[in-house]
Amino acid sequence: MIYKLNLGRSCLKVIIRTYGIKEIFIPYYSCKTIWQAVREEDCKIKFYHIDKDFMPDCEFPKDSYILYINYFGLFTDNCEILSAKYRNFICDNTQAFYAPNLGLATFNSLRKFFPVQNGAYLQIEKEPKMNFETDNLKLKTNEILRGKIFRHSEQCVESENFAPLNDVCGGIIDYEGFRQNELILNNEPIKLISAEVEKQINDIDFENDKKRRTEMFNKYAKEFGRYNLIKLPPLADNIPYCYPLCTNNNDIAGKLSGKTILRLWDDIPKSFPEYEFLYNVASLSLTCEW
Predict the structure, then answer these.
(1) E strand or H helix at 177, and its extent?
(2) Long-range pairs for 196-200: beta carbons < 8 A, 24 or more residues apart
(3) Which of 19, 70, 243, 244 lies in disulfide reach of 284, CB 3.0 to 4.6 Å?
């Protein structure tokens, strides 16, 4: 069953409520709004690390609830392996809009991929109690200057160094307006998707979007692949969210100067194993011209 809600974090909250989850495994390498959503549902978080293949570096108890992120929209194979192994697997496809639904429940995020103010799809095996009002929030249109480095990390909206992917691709200039919108969304309750967002999504040419993303990803892979410390899998049928680049090559860093770059959750402690290959990830947009 597919349900349409206002935000990815709303989907996660519905999953927790529907299954009465009291404890869940979540990767350290994740957005803190996930942590916030879980804790707001009085659910305990048990963190786990990922290895260079973006797989959990541990085994989980058989009946555990496990949230795994399809990082950059490139690790659907990992999702399939984990969903076959753990019956209470939950797939976070917020960076993988086109990926299949797997496990106990799957959710995505429309605004990470498309120029809409919110929206998310939830696939869940057990029917939830959906007594929520329809979203009618009207946010100010936001736009941001191109050619800057932005941080994509919802917990940092009070910082001046924050912006999300779709707004960068929108090429807009009202950055302060955007930050205020994010603060509003952080306090939004669970709602059903708005009619306006549904209409906007129905007007999107998905095939063209997939083609564009694939072409741009391959372009970046050809130019930067040999310098990338991240071990990326073959693109295959994956439709990526971005091209993640982690490099200590100064010449490459120079090439990135003045380009539209996003930083995904780069506040990783040096003691964490993820730091070695994720310490300074530049997520290159696949819908902006290079």
Answers:
(1) helix 175-186
(2) 197/110, 197/116, 197/117, 197/118, 197/119, 197/135, 198/4, 198/119, 200/114, 200/115, 200/116
(3) 243
pLDDT tens digits along 24-74: 999 999 988 899 999 999 999 999 999 999 999 999 999 999 999 999 999
* Structural domain boundaries, residue 62: 2-124
Separation of alpha carbons 15 and 31, rounded Å:
18
- Measured between alpha carbons, how far is 25 from 29 in angstroms, rounded to an integer? 12
Q: Does residue 147 sit within a domain?
A: no
Residue 237 lies in a domain: no
Taking the model in full, what pTM does it have?
0.86
Beta carbons of 163 and 178 less than 8 angstroms apart: yes
Say what the alpha-carbon torsion angle 171, 5, 105, 210 is, to the nearest 10 degrees: -30
- Specify if 114 maps to a domain: yes
Digit-coded pLDDT (tens) for 229-271? 999 999 999 999 999 999 888 778 677 765 656 667 767 899 9
Strand segments, DSSP code E, in the chain are 2-5, 23-27, 44-48, 65-69, 89-93, 105-108, 120-124, 149-152, 242-245, 261-264, 282-285
User: What whole-number distance in Å separates Cα of residue 163 and Cα of residue 153?
Assistant: 8
In CATH, what number is assigned to the domain containing residue 67? 3.40.640.10
